[in-house]
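>> received
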Amino acid sequence: MTLKAVTSFLRMTEDIFAKVDAFHEKYDGFFSPTWFDLIEKLNACIGFAKIFRTLKERSFPYVRGVAAQETDIKNFYSFFLVTRGFDPAQVVFNDYKYDQKTSFYFITGPNAGGKTIFLTSVCLCQLFFQATGLVPATDARIRVLRRVYTHFPVEEYNDNSGRLVEEQGRVEEILRDMTEDDCMCLFNETYSSTKADIAYNMSVDLCEKMMELKAKGLFVTHLHSLKDYAR
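>> returned
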């Protein structure tokens, strides 16, 4: 940026810079490396506060969760639907529960039936609870977990190896990293890129490993045959 451009920018935002300068002058002694290390954490707190303020403004319920040995969340909903402008009367509320005997579930159903919305909503309830203590639901007793895994990264990348190979790599990474207790795994149409019989066998193998590791979680799948395996 040239000096001329900087000067023009300062003139356009002169009132803002005057306030920043006055603030800095007043609180100069507080600005230390420790303060700047806290900025990211403060931004996260501010972001969470905005989220729950939005829920309140839109008349969506939320509750202070209770740490428990078993998870039981009542009337939770998708925050994504809130951000898209839906009101409480247009949103489906759901329950989610697991205990020591039943902790890993398959979710099947038609396309656009809400499977992925349910999956992400469960995940956000867990993350919101552990980050803030608040949960977008009417009642929430939640077990504190060590880790939450999904088989998709924040951004997918294509190295020409194919989706199935990528998925296998991610699943293997999860299995290597997972401890034997207090972990949640969320799988969304894993192995759906291959033939049904191969996908079934790979899914069964994965779920058996999840149960060996006592993992909690959900497996969204188009394979209705997995319901027979679950029985």
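>> The helical segments are 3-12, 14-26, 33-57, 79-83, 115-132, 163-177, 196-212, 226-230.
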